[in-house]
Amino acid sequence: MTNILELKGVSKGYGENQHRSEVLHDVNLTIRDGEFIAIVGFSGSGKTTLISLLAGLLLSDTGSVTMRGNTITGPGPERGVVFQNYSLLPWLTAFQNVKLAVDSVFPLWSSAQRKEHVEKYMNMVSLGHAMHKRPGELSGGMRQRVSVARALAMSPQILLLDEPLSALDALTRGTLQSEIARIWEQDKKTVVLITNDVDEAILLADRIIPLRPGPRATLGPEFAVNLARPRDRKELNHNEEFKRIRNTVTKYLLDAAATQKSAAPVAREIRLPDVKPIDLRLTTA
Amino acid sequence: MSAKQTLVKAINAAGLPAFEPVVKLAFMDEPRVQMRKIGLYIGVPILAFGLFLALWGAVAKSVVTKYGTLPTPGEVWHEASNLYTAHNLAREEERKYYVELAEKTAKQKTEASELRVKAATAATPEEKTAIEKRAARLEGLVEKAALKKYSGSPTYLDQIFTSLKTVFTGFLIASAIAVPLGIVCGLSKTFMAAVTPMIQIFKPVSPLAWLPIVMIIVGAMYTTDPSVAWFEKSFLTSAITVALCSLWPTLINTALGVSSIDKDFLNVARVLKLGWFEKVWRIVIPASLPLIFTGLRLSLSVGWMVLIAAEMLAQNPGLGKFVWDMFQNGSSQTLSQIMVAVFTIGIIGFMLDRIMIVFQKAVSFEAVVA
């Protein structure tokens, strides 16, 4: 398999000089064509920064981010992003939201061709019936499906999912996980999933890479998931291999968090202003 | 969707939520709750207004001015119907004038054609030329009559119409300037920094200060022959003054709307690699429409307020001039006539605001996003 995306010694921070805080430090990652990888980490560990780098929405301070050998200089439709908060345009219907993407990515197609393309992906995410509703009239799960359909309809070479399911309730989450697995089985597109849910990562991914908590977050050793597909979440609960991976990954993340905490410099002491009201008197009635 | 839901939706879209309980009551949906709501949102306001009128009526007679006592609500109402009657009379006059004119020209026309026939059978060439001359004179009169316009003084309703026309023209000029400028301001921090001082300085300027400048400039620049001009000078002066004073709310709100667009929407534009124009047209403008319309709504109400002052000072036709003329007349009806104008201005202002609310609701998507 060829490599599609490559990160070498990437770091990214905000601020300058002594105010600079490095979010990601020395991140190395190779993503191969057609694989489903999951990056798991705690909230605030720099996951969104990482996916923004992959998408090209942010540029790295040091190191290189390359796609098929070419340095990424900005976002583009060859890397479809599904944002955590859906990012649907609320004044357009679900259909129009997807169509906007199709129109701008395939300007040379005929309008009938584009319409058909949009409908294909709306049906793929099982939203054929709700195509002409606006995001405000859809549930959270349905909105995220529209967002997935929009990303897929751009026919990207790689799909970047930024905690796509974290805003959803547990039941909807489960359904959408199966749906993502089903869609991925269909065309085996390269997918990078960012998540804070270890179970979700094991259910979907070929490889799990933990993100050690920030600041100066970096990627840990990868854990291969060699469970046969399609994976059934009910059966997985009794699968020994599933349990083993879950325990290892969870333990790794917890240990990493613990060392991070002890290694982190003591948080700045907060000095409270030394004030007291000058006219405060205790009086007896 | 049931008829009830459709009606309720329509009422809310029309910006008249006070009538929602009436519809629900008609469908017997929780009648007790609806009755209470009707009492609160329709009953109480009507009662309060009645109280206000009663108070006014009670106090009016004790305020004595050189034009007599302050008119009571009844007198004002009477004056309003007088003005309406006067309008109808003037229209009747106008109609009569045109009927008479038409009759006269018809007569002249037949006379002229008779003369032409006569001329053809004239005995001598001298006689023929004389007759033809007469015919030509009559035909000339007929031609002139077609261009004749009734020249009665404008009625109260004419003044209202003129004011509305002026305010909308001014409002359109203001919007055409403020919306694009606001979009550029919102998109470019540099541009915003450049124009902010100017906005801050010109925004608080009263229409009364702009007016003389506008009058002088329009007077100098607008030199089109009045017989072919599209607008009168006075109309243009008022409209431009309205525009100058009312463009600020739209400008500021548009800039705010554009600069505060959800970053996610712009990320979508970046991922899709939309061009600058496409980004503005498909993402920036729709996303900031609710705030743009908030600005437009404020602008229209400012414009309406400014217009009355401008018309009054500049002696431009319209409601402002009406008020000023009545003030100058100084008759016993002066006060009631001005009060009719006050209520007219208020009610029209209120209606303009309602119309803008309807537009604002139509373009806002925030309400539906959970």
Fraction of residues in H or I helices of chain B: over 70%
Instruction: Write down the CATH class of the domain at 1-32 and 42-71 and 168-180 and 195-262 in chain A.
Output: Alpha Beta
* Overall spatial form of chain A: globular
CATH-level-2 architecture of the domain at 1-32 and 42-71 and 168-180 and 195-262 in chain A: 3-Layer(aba) Sandwich
What is the tally of beta strands of chain B?
2
Number of helices of chain A: 8
CATH fold annotation of the domain at 1-32 and 42-71 and 168-180 and 195-262 in chain A: Rossmann fold
Tell me which oligomeric state these chains represent.
Answer: heterodimer
What does this structure look like?
Chain A has a domain at 1-32 and 42-71 and 168-180 and 195-262: 3-Layer(aba) Sandwich (Rossmann fold). In chain A, 36% of the residues lie in helices and 20% in strands. Chain A is built from 8 helices and 10 strands. Chain A has a 6-stranded mixed β-sheet with strand order 6-7-8-3-9-10, with helices on both faces. In chain A, strands 2-1-4-5 form a 4-stranded antiparallel β-sheet, with helices on one face. In chain A, 40% of the residues are buried. By secondary structure, chain B is an all-alpha fold. Chain B folds into 3 domains: 3-60, no CATH class; 85-147; 156-368, MetI-like (MetI-like fold, Orthogonal Bundle), CATH 1.10.3720.10. Helix content of chain B is 80%, strand content 1%. Chain B contains 13 helices and 2 strands. Chain B has helices spanning 3-13, 20-26, 31-60, 73-120, 125-147, 156-187, 189-202, 207-221, 233-259, 263-271, 276-314, 319-329, 334-363; strands at 64-65, 68-69. In chain B, a hairpin with a 2-residue loop joins strand 1 (64-65) and strand 2. The chains are: A alpha/beta (285), B mainly alpha (370). Chain A binds chain B through residues 55, 57, 74-77, 79-81, 83, 85, 87, 89-92, 100-101, 104-105, 134-137, 154, and chain B through 262, 264-265, 267-268, 270-274, 278, 282-283, 286-287, 289, 365-370.
